[in-house]
Amino acid sequence: MPIYKYSVLKGDPKSGSLSPGSHPHYLINVDADGKTYQVAVNIESTDGSQVLYFINQNYTPPDATALDNLAVGMTPLTMHGNPAVDYVRSTANGQPIVTQSQMQLLPLPGKTNSSNLQNAVIQFLNQAIADDNGTIYAFGSQYTEGTGIHDIHMNQGNPPGSFEKDNGIWQDGMLVFELPASSTWAAIFIAFQTESWSTNKSGNPV
Known about the structure:
mainly beta; two-stranded antiparallel ribbon
């Protein structure tokens, strides 16, 4: 069963803060035509450093025009609809948008480089806020009440267990920052060590 209401949130990033709790997320507030949404990003490893991440400071979207043409706010996506994301299947200029070999292991809290992912989220968030036309695109699963988006990570290849139900193709999560002042795009990819990058048409590991 795919994740709940796979969507992309497009808007003007306004602020960010660390959530409380033992497994914190970094929470980004996004304005979309006067409505405030929240983006919850996994930024800490648990259970044996299971978070993997890749920071692309010179990202090339598969279809930048499709992103620019999106209405601000929340847009539901389907596997046949542009610009749905699939870590295994999406390409830009004939190349994968991300590969497993590019992903780095995020150390446990307190270890060297354990805050790299959080720092990157804050860095690009601040750049987008400072850019008059800076825009964030957050791909993932809508909150049930529709006020935000989470599951900003790979959502396929989970082994049998509690997250197997989330498996599907063309429903992966990521953060994309459009920074017109520098004519660049940046992207953050997040996955988990337990997820397979060899999946069938249902998103299950093969």
